[in-house]
Amino acid sequence: MKKTKNKLSLPRIAVAIITLIVFCTACIAVNLFSNISLKNFSDYAQKTAEKLSYEASSIIKATQDEKTIFLEAVASASIHNNKNIMVVEFADKNGQTFITKKSRYYNPSAFTGVKVNTPVNVVNDDKLQTAGYVKIFVSNESALEQIHTQKIWLSLLFFVVWLTFLVVIFLYKLLLDRELKILYLGLKNIVDGKFGTKITISGNKQTNNLINIFNDLSLKLQKYEEQNVGSLLIERNKLEAILMSIVNGVVVCDNADNIVLMNSAAEKMLNVATGVLNGVAIQCYTDSDGKYCFRDKIEEFKDTLVQDITKNPPEFTISVDNRIIRCILSPIFMQNDEYLGYIIVMLDVTKETEVNNMKNQFISNVSHELRTPVTVLRTYIDTLYSMGDELDKETRKEFTATANKEVTRLHRMVNDILDVSRLESPDVELEKEITDIAPIIEDTVTSMQVLADEKDVKIVFTKPDEPVMVPINVANMERVFNNLISNAIKYSPEKTRIEVMLSKTENYAEVSVTDHGCGIEEKHLAKLFDRFYRVENSVHTVKGTGLGLYLVKTTVEKHHNGKVYVTSKVGEGSTFGIKLPLSL
Ligand code: ADP
Fold first, then answer.
1. pTM score
2. In angstroms, what is the span from residue 545 Cα to ligand 1's centroid?
3. Most buried pick, 20, 234, 359, 482, via CB within 10 A?
4. Which pLDDT score is estimated for 535?
5. 14 and 144 housed in the same domain
6. In whole angstroms, what is the distance from residue 74 CA to residue 98 CA?
7. Looking at the structure, do residues 488 and 391 belong to the same domain, yes or no?
């Protein structure tokens, strides 16, 4: 903020007025002095004339000649003794001048001074009578000269006194200015936040008091600030620690879009090194495809009305390294509604999105899977119902077999779907009995034989000689073997072999199903046992629900404390296996 300089400040006006008063006083004093001097000079002239008058009166009784000689002598002596007396005249009582004596310095045209005419009085018969007159011209030149000189000295004295006064004021002001400047700099330091600034100059008592108060204030402010900064830092650190430990990504931007804080979760999600984006505008961030994924969204956010933002915080997703990240933007306002910037909360929704996609895919698959057997069943049963008598025995048998196959498929699928939630529930505890699992596998292989025969696939089952007794829920384990073997048949080409192997170690029984089918790419293996996951959605063409292996895993791992595994090579085949503990 600018301030205009006030040139006519109060102290300056005061100095000017005092100067004027002093100047006038000096003038008046000098004039008064010269008037007094001139008055003194007139008195002096009068007295000189009276003295001459007195001297003249003393010879009133003398003869005229004696008077003339005497008075001439008096006149000459007066002029001789007093250089200021220019002319001395004596006149008779009628005013007739009979003696005139002039100084050799007398110049009538240049004469300045006093002309005094004094009567010469004598007492005659107790009466005062005028016997004549004494007239003198007294020059005031030297008096004037003296007055002039004295005037100069007086003026000089005033001037010197005034100058001294001014110098004193000036020096005082200079000192005061210096002290004020130091005080000002100290205060400026405090205003700039440099608390603890100390001033060490010493001045007069009042200045020292002021400086002591300043130093006290500065010290107190410093202590206060230290305490305040300390607690603020603790608060800030706490807040930062909270933000940093949040599992969701958090990015805080100021009102110029620059990133001021980013927690490690956000750094991980955006795949950037720690601190690299600090101070960088968020719009400059590029995702793994080199796209400025935040730019448009931030601009859109800034164009939206605050009320709308508060009601519905803007949400958008970005994709970084095949991960899908949902971002929620919220503005930050101070209590006085000052806009500070915004905060972006990030959630990695890759899994959620995948599950959603898989769910959608599952619904579409299930609908398709249901529709096919139902249509086939309807057609076959319809035909059998309306034309059953006309069909030969063989055809009827074939129709019934197909219908049976489709019902089995349907039954299996419906069971799978229903069992998912049952097996997932934490409250469900499967009943188990120690059973030899070899016959169960054998039965499954037998029941699958029809399916295998269709593709001319040979299933070879190998097992140890002694029974493998394992605590299992028979029905659920049947489904596990069923799923593994039916998958192996499903994904095996015609005229290949499937090896089902049962083995036993000290602690567990192991069942593996190896096929020589299409195999599975490495990247799918980790997700294969996930709910709804199907390689078919992207690669394979065989239909299914994506629940089979999930049920295998849930049954084995959750309910039998076992382990599932898979190894596979594309084009060579896959091995799916389970390990079951021999005791609970
Ligand atoms: P689906 O109902 O699709 O068979 P599963 O959970 O049983 O569901 O299998 C999941 C996915 O695993 C299948 O979609 C398939 O791509 C893959 N898969 C399972 N078994 C095999 C196998 N023996 N050979 C190749 N791929 C297999």
1. 0.50
2. 9
3. 482
4. 83
5. yes
6. 14
7. no
